[in-house]
Amino acid sequence: MLSRLEQTDDASDEMLELTPLIGPMREAVELCSPGAAARNIDIELNCDDTVEARINPNLIQQGVVNLIDNALKYSEDGTSVSVEAIESGNEVLIFVRDQGCGIAADHLPRLFERFYRVDRARSRDLGGTGLGLSIVRHIVQCHHGRVTVESTPGIGSSFCIHLPKVSVAATK
């Protein structure tokens, strides 16, 4: 998937359509719900039906699934994960927030690199290839956006996908 995304970075506009975000986000939450339920973790979804962006719905769904999956992996049983989309200025923001173990500041600059793992031993125990966040970064780049993270060890992490907001005039 990562290889395919890297090849389509420049041709991505053909794949994008003005779409409400609620659908792909709801599907992402539903895909991750069994794993969350098994650990008694609540996934809270907050997205108004009117929040929309030019997206490839399947790619955005995959990116949100990857972020939720990481949030679940690094959260304690009985906590919650928040998934939210809002409009802010000329951006549409998709947040995935957890109450997990958090990430030290020195790891944040490399977090979206291929195969980068903050804690190799723990990542191996939890399963994973170290590609999930790199895939998210490439998905977001296909949408002319960016992805950021804020994290505090012991408190949790907040990942944010920043997508360009589409004006009504631009879609006509």
Description:
A hairpin with a 2-residue loop joins β4 (80-88) and β5. The chain is an alpha+beta fold. A 5-stranded mixed β-sheet has the order 2-4-5-7-6. It is globular. The protein contains 5 helices and 7 strands. α1 (2-8) packs parallel to α5 (132-142).
Topology:
Layout: H1 2-8, E1 17-20, H2 22-38, E2 42-47, E3 52-55, H3 57-73, E4 80-88, E5 91-98, H4 120-126, H5 132-142, E6 146-152, E7 156-164
Parallel strand pairs: 2-4
Antiparallel strand pairs: 1-3, 4-5, 5-7, 6-7
Helix pairs in contact: 1-5, 2-3, 3-5
Task: Indicate the structural class.
Answer: alpha+beta
Strand fraction: 25-35%
* Radius of gyration, CA atoms, in whole angstroms: 16 Å
- The share of residues in helices is 25-40%
Q: How many beta-strand runs? A: 7
Query: Biggest sheet: strands side by side, in what order?
Result: 2-4-5-7-6
Largest sheet: 5 strands, mixed
SSE order in H/E notation?
Answer: HEHEEHEEHHEE
Stretches where pLDDT is under 50 for at least 5 consecutive residues are: none
Q: Provide mean pLDDT, rounded.
A: 84
* Cα separation of the termini: 32 Å
- Helix segment tally: 5
Apparent shape: globular
Key terms for this structure?
alpha+beta, two-stranded antiparallel sheet, 5-stranded mixed sheet, 172 residues, 5 helices
